[in-house]
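URGENT: need a sanity check before tomorrow's submission.

F., can you look over the DnaJ-like protein subfamily C member 11 record below? I want to be sure the sequence and structure line up before it goes out.
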Amino acid sequence: MHSCEKANDEEISNAYRRLSRMYHPDKHTDPQRKKEAEILFSKTKKAYEDPHLRAIYDNLGTAGLETQGWEIVQRTKTPQEIRAEYEQLARDREERRIQHRTNPKSSITMNINATELFNSYDDESPYYDLRDLVGLPHIEISGMSINQSIEAPLTTRDTAIFSGNLSSQNGTGHGGVNCCVRRVLSEKGWGEIEFGAGNGVNLSLKGFRNFSRGFFGNGSIIGHFTPTGVRLGTVATLANQLDKHTVGYLTWKTGMQSGMSTMIIRDTSKSHIVCSLYFGIPHTYCALSFTRKLPERETKFKITGKAGTFGAILEYGAERKVSRHSSLGATMSIGVPTGVILKIRLHRATQTYATSILLCEELLPAPVIYGTVIPIVGWLALQKLIIQPYLKQQKQKELQKQREANRSSIHSDSLFLHFVAYGYVTETLIVIYIPVFHIELKKCCF
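Structure tokens as predicted:
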């Protein structure tokens, strides 16, 4: 008899009955052994009843069953495909473990001045250059900022956080580094001390406390040491869970920026609403933001209004998930005295890339229309020329793999018919058993 890598149904059933008797919880009296037997008994039962799990177990053993994140594994997948998927999941799991441990975060923000796109040309100006001769507008990067932070767990209760930032605005730049240590004091709170250096020396103490269910608060004392003196400031916030979806916040600030604000946030599966009111120096304002969520389309639409002693701003935009870990959004900001600004934001995992384009310093209809239409046309072109072809290509690859697997299965069935016919001619009986990968030949005489 020729033995193969895979067992037939009878052998699988016998092995399942044997393992079930061995690992049945009632067979063990020791509590620790009984607990381990329950886990093994459950795994054995799942692997026997589910053909998808059986396909994983046949090729990878218990390590495959313990791996999370499997796509639906069909029995028509080859062992090489199952192992390749397992190795990919292992790499993803290790990457997630490292990211979860260090929690790296980064953001890059760029400011672009494109006001000349909508400014009329001054014929009386005595200055001109090559751009004036060919009619090219002058667009410049007026500012950029980069922020990066990572976490380093020291103990089960202590975590160190390192962060740094660099920024430049109109040719003037500055930066800083910060190091903070956070300690979990109890299940209800934590404390944090932070030290930073950049434009002077910063030292701050922060704390969080959960007073009761749905009622919590945090506070901080901040000191900024410069050659001209020391500036102190405090921030304190109290929050209360008003209902299942609503939280209210009350914040006090003193020192560097004095003021008091109240905020109500309501978040549901379909919408996100933020209402805030701020009284302080140098400005007082109120703001209202509404976000409409479309989970089935992985899209969000947002509109925000803000008005106060500084002026007024109206913002509207949309955000769309473009891949498993990435989302792309665009927002139009129309305000006095800020002007017309187009904001584009790409968020991928823990990285954020943002661009703010100043289209016009005045409220004119042309920049508003162009700033609204161009992102929509750009998104449609991106989806039509890049995203959809890529997804279609990936789908075709999956279909091709499925066809090859089905062709292999059909070929195995044709082998069965061929060998049976050959058996009658040569007075030899050949029995072929095909779960998917397994072909077992038995030869005996009549």
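My own read: The chain is about 30% helix and 45% strand. Residues 1-5, 70-76, 121-125, 412-446 have pLDDT under 50 and may be disordered. If you see anything odd, call me.
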